[in-house]
Amino acid sequence: MALLSVRGLTKRFAGLTAVNAIDLDVPEGSLFAVIGPNGAGKTTFFNMVSGFLPPTEGTIAFAGADITRLRQDRIAAAGLVRTFQLVQLFKGLTVAENVEVGFHLATRGGVTAALLRPSWFRRQEADVHARARELLAFVGLGAVADQDAELLPYGQQRLLEVARALAAKPRLLLLDEPAAGLNAHETDALAEVIQELNRKGTTVLLIEHDMALVTRIAHRIAVLDFGCKIAEGTPDEIKRHPDVIAAYLGAEETPEAAHA
Ligand SMILES: Nc1ncnc2c1ncn2[C@@H]1O[C@H](COP(=O)(O)OP(=O)(O)OP(=O)(O)O)[C@@H](O)[C@H]1O
């Protein structure tokens, strides 16, 4: 069964159709990618799926429930959690504290409990602390847990953002251009983390410019161009697809060139 099922999803801004009648099914357990040239509508699509932008038309179902008009916090609470194209860490907090914030979004208590500190809250806090360290070890940031998050190199900030998103226990993790601004070594580290969290059971939907990364790790790829889905298939099918090659040639970048 599809964990995420999108039908006829459309977004119009004034005269421009940014996303045009997209149908997409993301199977539970898959590592799915949405690619496309600049301005193809990827970010708009993501913003609608995660509740940051209301669709003009169409429906979005997650785990069998209609989430089309749900608020973004309700969508996250249902298990659909996203990261952002630009890293958004909490400044002035350590690496570990940034992950702990992610847990608090998913645990009970809130501000009142933090002030009154009942015993269940203290137990929960100790648990959150331990689990934050586990997640940091998982993404390879165990050694820098107590550093100021702002001082991390950019590649590590992106891994931290993934760890924080995982703290909210997503069933579907949306990654918005996770490799943007990373060097080859950092991209490899990120690719391994994404594959491993997927193997452990988290379904992943990523949008990405880096064609080489996508064709290496995704099970299935959908290609957008001018707001429309022009192709969908396995990485091998997508690399050979004439419409995809034409779309990327139009953007002066071929899948093969992006590979080099
Ligand atoms: N808030 C908005 N108002 C008007 N037009 C918008 C708005 N947001 C996006 N667009 C337009 O919609 C189209 C799709 O943009 P979108 O950012 O979704 O594409 P993208 O594939 O994510 O591009 P990129 O890879 O450059 O981020 C573009 O033509 C863009 O200019």
UniProtKB/TrEMBL annotation:
CDD domains: ABC_Mj1267_LivG_branched (cd03219)
Domain of life (superkingdom): Bacteria
UniProt-listed PANTHER family: AMINO ACID ABC TRANSPORTER ATP-BINDING PROTEIN (PTHR45772:SF7), CONSERVED COMPONENT OF ABC TRANSPORTER FOR NATURAL AMINO ACIDS-RELATED (PTHR45772)
Domain called ABC transporter: residue spans: 4-251
Protein name: High-affinity branched-chain amino acid ABC transporter ATP-binding protein LivG
A Pfam family assignment: ABC_tran
Species assigned in the record: Rhodoplanes elegans
GO CC terms of this entry: plasma membrane
PROSITE patterns associated with the record: ABC_TRANSPORTER_2
Biological process per Gene Ontology, one example term: D-alanine transmembrane transport
SUPFAM superfamilies, per the entry: P-loop containing nucleoside triphosphate hydrolases (SSF52540)
InterPro entries assigned: AAA+_ATPase (IPR003593), ABC_AA/LPS_Transport (IPR051120), ABC_transporter-like_ATP-bd (IPR003439), BCA_ABC_TP_C (IPR032823), P-loop_NTPase (IPR027417)
Gene Ontology molecular-function annotations: ATP binding; ATP hydrolysis activity; L-isoleucine transmembrane transporter activity; L-phenylalanine transmembrane transporter activity; L-valine transmembrane transporter activity
